[in-house]
Amino acid sequence: MRVLAAALTIGLSLICLIGTARAQVAGRLIDAVDANERGNHIDISIIFGCGLQYISHTPASEGDTLRLRFAPLPDCGSLVGTLSSPPLDGITAIRSIEAEQLVLNQVDVTVHFAAAERYVLAPTADSHGVRIRLLRPESSGTRVMIFEHGAPPAGYAVPPVDRLTTQMYEAWRECCANRTLRDLLAESA
């Protein structure tokens, strides 16, 4: 009986250790940062060592600091010791990048730009990165293209959030202009 209990204890311990080891992030949370400069914009790619589900970012489309909030996916495991800053060799548009675990289920990635920037961004389809496009004054486009290996390209047209918010507000005002709360509730039932 004692032998069976000991074997069961050892077996459960090994299963827990194997599961924990598989869920650890190898290396840094931010694996790499890359930048490609074009005539009227700079494309920045931030690649993560595990899946991070995009939650939000602030400010919406302009500033010298960009704070991105993510929720770690199960393949991240423990983030202890992985939040060190990535190398930024030759990327002059970024002063620094910091990663911080807020609570067990949220991570902030803060990008400090070298100067105030206008930008659009989109998370990658596989949740292992984010693309940021820094727009130059002569830039007229706000389109971010994301190319995933082994999958068709995913195009994200991301308008500046303040313009989108204004359009949504105006559409909502127009929709509800001559309706009461009772009318709206009756329509939704």
Task: Provide a descriptive summary of the structure in words.
- The protein has helices spanning 2-22, 161-176, 181-188, and strands at 30-37, 41-48, 52-58, 62-72, 94-103, 106-123, 129-135, 143-146, 154-157.
- The chain is α+β, with helices and mostly antiparallel strands and 189 residues long.
- It has two domains: 21-158, Immunoglobulin-like, CATH 2.60.40; 160-189.
- The strands form two sheets. Strands 1, 2, 3, 4, 5, 6 and 7 form a seven-stranded antiparallel β-sheet that branches.
- The relative contact order is 0.15.
Summarize this structure briefly:
The chain has two domains: 21-158, Sandwich (Immunoglobulin-like), CATH 2.60.40; 160-189.
Structural key phrases:
globular, 3 helices, two-stranded antiparallel ribbon, alpha+beta, 2 domains, 189 residues, Immunoglobulin-like
Q: How much of the sequence is in beta strands?
A: 35-45%
Rg over CA atoms, rounded to whole Å, is: 22 Å
Total E-strand runs: 9
Number of helices: 3
Q: Estimate the helix proportion, in percent.
A: 10-25%
CATH topology annotation of the largest domain: Immunoglobulin-like
**Which residues form runs of ≥5 with pLDDT under 50?**
3-26, 152-159
Shape: globular
Query: At the first level of CATH, what is the class of the largest domain?
Result: Mainly Beta
End-to-end C-alpha gap: 63 Å
Number of domain units: 2
Any guess at the CATH architecture of the largest domain? Answer: Sandwich
How would you characterize the largest beta sheet?
A: 7 strands, antiparallel
State the order of secondary-structure elements, H for helix, E for strand. Answer: HEEEEEEEEEHH
Structural class: alpha+beta
